[in-house]
């Protein structure tokens, strides 16, 4: 769809979900399974969100921490893990699910296709003056974009390090190296980026990682940020070839098309997911639970990990419901949270849980509420 100077459009469904990342897809599936007609809208050409366009290598948050074997946090987590089909891998205290480029998007597409009640509108960017006609609305954009355009209160969290996934091939398996060695070499160059490598399987053909950038680049335009990422990847490869024998013939196999953001605008609710709630564990309020630690990338010294209560942390429904009349929900990265809370809520496994819950709640409201019409406005900072 050509977004330049187009006329206002009208989008209508029982439940409209904006954003087709893990939380949006999960929300759409839950709402459709509950018997409502769903419209899923996304500006990209396919589902997947940051997992897909930033080229991330793992789905985090599907498994309980500190277990000798991978145990799913919920039936939904099990369903997604089985649909992807890969074997989990342990990294430190946590298990993750490795994925190949495009694999999550392909899996999400197949799952959406099983629900005839879901109509998808990709390559569609909502704009001011567009009309939304709905019984319930879900903002799964990850940046509270629709909440802002609906005039609901949002706030910005602290800028953190953006990142993009990459894969390096052409490594000499006969040469010894370690990620610590490589990081020390790169640190001496005083670059404004920091790579983090996945544990290397010496039988594998490539090394995967994420290139992290200074929070100073958080506010850059997406195109400029993508150009900066490619420039930094070239610099990193040049440094690796010069300083580490194993990388003397290394080349870039692939990288994410866009740089993923770890922070952004959130719903400014009365109840926020914050450090106290992460550590508290139990709450009598209805909602869902997450188990992944807050991975807070405040600077290029690396992430600060805040591990939650052993029984996980609660995300009450109040963090998801942005408006009662009309019924509007938010999920994933843009739910009501502090900067630290957003660092825990943004991982894909937690997004799947909050998305499912938002879809359930939206479907409940859709069955008992009338039709609502919302004219989107130019977003303003609040």
From TrEMBL:
What the entry lists under Gene3D superfamilies is as follows: FAD/NAD(P)-binding domain
Family matches, as InterPro entries? FAD/NAD-bd_sf, HdrA-like
* A Pfam family hit: FAD_oxidored
Q: Which GO terms describe its molecular function?
A: 4 iron, 4 sulfur cluster binding; metal ion binding; oxidoreductase activity
* Signal sequence segment: none
Cite the entry's keywords alphabetically. Answer: 4Fe-4S, Iron, Iron-sulfur, Metal-binding, Oxidoreductase
Q: What is this protein called?
A: FAD dependent oxidoreductase
Recorded source organism is: Desulfomicrobium norvegicum (strain DSM 1741 / NCIMB 8310)
